[in-house]
Automatic annotation (TrEMBL):
<dbReference type="InterPro" id="IPR003787">
    <property type="entry name" value="Sulphur_relay_DsrE/F-like"/>
</dbReference>
<comment type="similarity">
    <text>Belongs to the DsrF/TusC family.</text>
</comment>
<protein>
    <submittedName>
        <fullName>Uncharacterized protein</fullName>
    </submittedName>
</protein>
<dbReference type="InterPro" id="IPR027396">
    <property type="entry name" value="DsrEFH-like"/>
</dbReference>
<dbReference type="InterPro" id="IPR017462">
    <property type="entry name" value="Sulphur_relay_TusC/DsrF"/>
</dbReference>
<dbReference type="Pfam" id="PF02635">
    <property type="entry name" value="DsrE"/>
</dbReference>
Length: 117
């Protein structure tokens, strides 16, 4: 089964982002094919330069960088969201790949299950 986890919220102010990452890891542990897409404000989760000093804003980048170790290698972000937020792809997790809106639509059509957070 193919799972697509679509992240759309900023990483802080709630626990949804971390819980969704945990859900993706659990799916992968049961040998499910998992893809993650970071869209809209969720793209901030992929930043390598998150504020590690603020405990209320514990960065997720450590977990995201470890995802390939758990066979979650399909990690994407929307290139338009990068552009609209003035974020350079060089500042994002190195294994994350850019997607266009059309490519996202194709990925969504190919998924058996889609979870949006």
């Amino acid at each position: 089964m193919t799972f697509l986890y679509l992240f759309t919220r900023a990483p802080y102010g709630h626990s949804i982002a971390r819980e969704a990452l945990d859900m993706a890891l659990a799916s992968a542990a049961f040998d499910q094919h998992v893809s993650l897409v970071f869209a809209q404000d969720a793209i901030y989760q992929l930043l390598n330069t998150q504020d590690k000093g603020n405990t209320e804003k514990k960065p997720h980048i450590g977990v995201i960088n470890a995802l390939p170790l758990y066979e979650i290698e399909n990690i994407y972000y929307l290139s338009d969201d990068c552009t609209s937020r003035n974020i350079s792809a060089t500042n994002l997790a190195p294994h994350a790949k850019a997607l266009s809106a059309t490519e996202l639509a194709d990925l969504m059509r190919s998924a058996d299950r889609i979870q949006s957070f």
